[in-house]
Write a structure and sequence with these properties.
Layout (H helix, E strand, L loop, with lengths): L1 H6 L3 E7 L10 H25 L6 E7 L2 H8 L6 E3 L14 H8 L3 E3 L11 E5 L4 H9 L1 H4 L4 E7 L6 H16 L5 E6 L6 H11 L4 E5 L5 H7 L2 H8 L3 E5 L1
Parallel strand pairs: 1-2, 3-4, 5-6, 5-8, 6-7, 8-9
Antiparallel strand pairs: 4-9
Helix pairs in contact: 3-4
Length: about 250
């Protein structure tokens, strides 16, 4: 709601829950019972949403019986931004969106909220830069936030595949591009250190007092990233910041 107020945007809440027919083994009566229960829960979700947004104009509500990530991705056709929380470990995809699927399917930026009760600020932003298509897309998708920020730092983590000179040149080009949008960004090549790339990004965000990280998502096949470990999966699970993902 804070973000919608800032941008004068419409808020559309979405309630979705899958009624998984595979759980009832062809029992038509039990399937109908599950569907009725799902309708009751979706009605309760709508009532909760409307109580949270009471007094606001420009709100809408969508309800659907289906997997939440699929429904969010479908209805993202009418949205500029999806806002969601991090699902807790063990949460069923029947009730909450699976973030990896949502980010891959949506075709829109996905803002993952920080854990806890931290209010969104967006005054200081770290852009996690790697010279890949997904990162370029992320910078474009994040422009509304970057233009309002007091401080933007484009951070590239040292890597063996690229020289410092090549990394610096790329960062300067990105900063120059943002300057054309009235975003005064500074650049930084951060040492990887002994930890993961994700830890280095998180450290940079904390060092610059940023509460928002902008990142390209799944720059390599998702199965490979899940199997080998990767920045996207780590940021979803471990980051303490708000993260804006684009694929």
């Amino acid at each position: 709601m804070d973000i919608a107020t800032r941008f004068g945007a419409t808020i559309t809440g979405l309630g979705a829950e899958a009624c998984d027919a595979t759980l009832v083994a062809g029992d038509a009566m039990l399937l109908e019972t599950l569907r009725e229960r799902t309708e009751i829960e979706l009605s309760a979700a709508e009532a909760h949403f409307r109580s949270l947004t009471a007094g606001r104009t420009n709100i809408g509500w969508i309800r659907d019986q289906g997997f939440p990530d699929k429904m969010l991705a479908l209805h993202a056709r009418g949205a500029d931004l999806i806002v969601t929380s991090r699902p807790a470990r063990g949460d069923s995809a029947i009730y909450v969106p699976k973030l990896s699927d949502l980010v891959m399917r949506a075709g829109a930026p996905v803002l993952v909220a920080a854990d806890g009760t931290s209010a969104f600020s967006g005054r200081k932003i770290v852009v996690a830069w790697k010279d890949a298509r997904e990162c370029r897309r992320a910078v474009s998708d994040a422009l509304p936030f970057l233009k309002r920020a007091q401080k933007v730092v484009i951070v590239s983590i040292e890597c063996a595949e690229a020289s410092s000179a090549a990394q610096s040149e790329a960062l300067v080009e990105v900063a120059r591009r943002l300057e054309g949008h009235d975003v005064n960004a500074c650049v930084e090549i951060a040492p990887k250190g002994a930890g993961t790339v994700t830890e280095s990004i998180e450290d940079a965000a904390s060092r610059h007092d940023a509460d928002l990280i902008v990142a390209g998502a799944y720059g390599r096949p998702r199965l490979e990233e899940w199997w080998l470990g990767g920045v996207t999966e780590d940021l979803v699970v471990a980051s303490s910041k708000f993260v804006l993902f684009s694929h």
